[in-house]
Design goal:
The protein is α/β, with parallel strands linked by helices. 42% of the residues lie in helices and 12% in strands. The structure holds ligand V47 and iron/sulfur cluster.
Length: 374
Amino acid sequence: MGINKIERKVLSGHCLSTDDALFLFQSDDIFTMGRLANIIAEKKNGKNAYFIQNRHINPTNICVNRCKFCAFSRSKGEKGAYELSIKEIIKKLKRPGVRGQRSGIKSTHLSPSFSEVHIVGGLHPDWPFDFYLEMLWQIKKALPHIHIKAFTAVEIDYFSKISGLSLADTLSELRDAGLDSMPGGGAEIFDARVRNKICPEKIPGKRWLKIMEAAHNVGIKTNATMLYGHLETFKHRVEHMRKLRELQDRTGGFQAFIPLAFHPLNTKIEGASYTSGIDDLKTIAISRLFLDNFQHIKAYWIMLGEKIAQLALMFGADDLDGTIIEEKITHSAGALSENAMTRAQLVNLIEKAGKVPVERDSFYNSVHGCPNIK
Ligand code: V47
Ligand code: SF4
């Protein structure tokens, strides 16, 4: 096998094998991978690079799991632990946003007209399932036009446990209360041995996949993620993506794949460091080439940093995520990026990468009806 054989496979529209993906991870020829991944990205989405005006909210950092890679979570009563009331969540949603620290973004530059709220948080030991239903219901009542993308598969599993409801009923109740789609967090790395080292309390990979399948079966679209750059090997990454590709073949319910670059600060992963730009770009490119049945690959700029995320648009990614406004999970672990970007900054990054900025809704429809610029 060689990169030329893989190139012929890609150009003739054949699916890459796990051996091909592993070969690419072991290769340093990122320019060939990037060029091929860009060809596939443009076949799927033209020159479009998507972004969304959104806002992140984390209702609580109190979590019973305390994953070793998570610098965001706290135990109940610990210094730094917080809980937001539903009123406080809605107040945040009605406020334009906080200032960027380094870019000098003023809150008045941050558009209040975002279209999506992304809500994930810790597994709170005391909050009942009804609290989450009420949260969704109240947000919909206060801001009916906002799409609610909320709760990782890990939270859904926890809700099913605390409510005593089946997975399908838990998901249906959330959907009926206002849940529009789900993010892709909590997947981490499926390999059981590594998972046991980095997040021993978290649901197994098999359960994560089962919950996503159940969500897709009740009509809830989701994303999928992979946390990389900690203790896993390239083989673990390929196996992780293979399982996602197989589930996507069955349900078609994943919208985007998002490789999440591990951030080491304040975590309990010993000896770990930041990922390299080369590894970030390689992982984006290989995921674009391997996950042929995923329409979108997201370069989450918060974790990649603005500049690598921009380069990722030339390495197979077609989405930068959004304006974010307030980000706690990665910033607790030493993110080097800002907390927020304005719409104009996102448009500028995309244009300078030679792509067409398309402001999207949560289902990748252009909010202006056709590819738009500025
Ligand atoms: O599940 C936690 C990860 C995830 C660290 O679906 C860390 O559109 C790096 O899933 N270093 C939450 N990563 C974020 C997430 C996400 C973000 C943006 C968009 C979408 C989407 C999903 O963050 C967690 C975990 O995998 N995480 N700690 C860390 N130290
Ligand atoms: Fe809790 Fe999620 Fe952090 Fe794990 S990653 S400790 S489940 S908040």
